[in-house]
Design goal:
Blueprint lengths: L1 E10 L2 E7 L4 E5 L6 H13 L18 E9 L3 E9 L5 E4 L2 E3 L1 H4 L5 E4 L11 H15 L1 H24 L9 H37 L6 E6 L16 H14 L1 H7 L10 E6 L2 E2 H4 L2 H23 L4 E5 L7 H14 L2 E5 L7 H6 L1 E6 L2 E3 L1
Parallel strand pairs: 3-13, 3-14, 8-12, 12-13
Antiparallel strand pairs: 1-2, 1-4, 4-5, 5-6, 6-7, 9-10, 10-11, 14-15
């Protein structure tokens, strides 16, 4: 899978830009605040139907314009024309081959893996960061999971609203069982799918980490459901559907009054986590910055293999100014691996991070004030 061409109209600081991309390495160089990150954001919007930088989609529209249009031609097993239109006056439109479609059908047409400086905080960041990282990748390869996740999020919002009201009016608790049943059903499906995906990611990240660390360290990525403490989780443990359902119901009963007191849901996959361990030591607590960054790189590379296993094609890799965050060895290893497998789009403020050989095989673009020059 790769992007053949990309066109931006009134997107962020781009009034109009059209470019062709190589299936291999594409490097975009420019000073800060020229539009490098905006370019990757546009590709991400074509992939996930929404931005990773803002929830207010009208912010994507160039100042003075009323709408923005992002289009791309994507080469897969068949060539697809994708478009996203965001307007201040009407609802966002998603199109595949010039036909309007839903977000659930649109997501998955262009698969991406995004790697930004904040990604290097994955290990020591919050559980919510790690859940979002995981969910973004699963949603691209599994529309059923995405649909279940959206339904589950609505259930939690409705249930939270009910719990807040029940603090003043306990009669509202009579409505809880209906929402609890939906939480258990959808929550079980989400947790089992996460478990399977993390098992696959563990397999690939372990292999990638051995390569990056010259087999000096052993990486373990472990799924931690909300009902397990970090001390009790174990590599390779498999939770059955019956066990997850029973545990969800038991926890809902145990924590019912505490949920009413706090006014929000304490039970479910919205409290899951991922645990990174090196040689059986918690990487978040005891790992060096170098070890944490190596683990994140291994995880990113594992995502590529997961998506290829699920879809038959490698995703497009977006690297936003991360080369300066990595030492030369990690830079070269990352690019050498990606160059063999996936279309890679890199932004940077200078070309010093790249060897002459790398620059020779890449397509290099310069970005200046929303203009793309080659």
């Amino acid at each position: 899978m790769h992007i053949k061409s990309l066109s931006l109209h009134s997107f962020r600081n781009y009034q109009s830009a059209t470019l062709s991309l190589t299936p291999g390495l594409n490097i975009f160089v420019g000073d800060n605040a020229q539009g490098k990150t905006n370019l990757l954001e546009a590709i991400y919007v074509l992939s996930l139907s929404k931005s990773y930088r803002t929830t207010r989609e009208t912010e994507l529209i160039n100042h003075g314009a009323q709408r923005t249009v992002i289009t791309a031609q994507v080469a897969k097993m068949a060539t697809l024309d994708l478009a996203v239109m965001v307007s201040e006056l009407e609802k966002k439109r998603l199109l595949v081959n010039q036909k309007s479609t839903t977000a659930n059908s649109f997501v998955g047409c262009l698969n991406t893996v995004l790697f930004i400086p904040d990604s290097l905080q994955l290990v020591k960041g919050s559980p919510g960061d790690r859940r979002r990282f995981l969910d973004v990748q699963i949603c691209q390869i599994d529309p059923v999971y995405r649909n279940n996740l959206l339904k589950y999020q609505r259930v939690v919002r409705q249930r939270n609203s009910l719990l807040k009201g029940a603090f003043e009016n306990r009669s509202q608790l009579s409505q809880l069982p209906a929402w609890d049943n939906q939480l258990v059903s959808l929550g079980t499906k989400i947790m089992l799918r996460r478990q399977d995906v993390v098992e696959t990611l563990q397999h690939y990240s372990k292999s990638a980490h051995e390569r990056i660390s010259d087999e000096r360290e052993d990486l373990h990525l472990i799924y931690q459901p909300f009902f397990e403490t970090e001390e009790n989780i174990a590599l390779g443990r498999k939770y059955t559907s019956a066990h997850v359902e029973d545990t969800l119901r038991q926890k809902l009963q145990e924590l019912k009054m505490e949920e009413v007191r706090r006014g929000y849901t304490l039970v479910g996959p919205q409290r899951d986590d991922l645990v990174f361990r090196i040689n059986d030591a918690d990487l978040k607590k005891y790992g060096s910055q170098g070890q944490q960054r190596t683990a994140v790189l291994a995880y990113i590379l594992a995502e590529l293999e997961l998506m290829c296993q699920e879809t038959g094609e490698y995703p497009v890799v977006l690297l936003d100014d991360v080369m300066s965050e990595l030492d030369r060895n990690r830079q070269m290893l990352l690019l050498s691996i990606l160059n063999q497998k996936a279309q890679t789009i890199v932004t940077t403020t200078n070309l010093d991070s790249f060897t002459p050989e790398t620059k020779q095989r890449a397509s290099i673009f310069r970005i200046e004030q929303g203009r793309i020059l080659q």
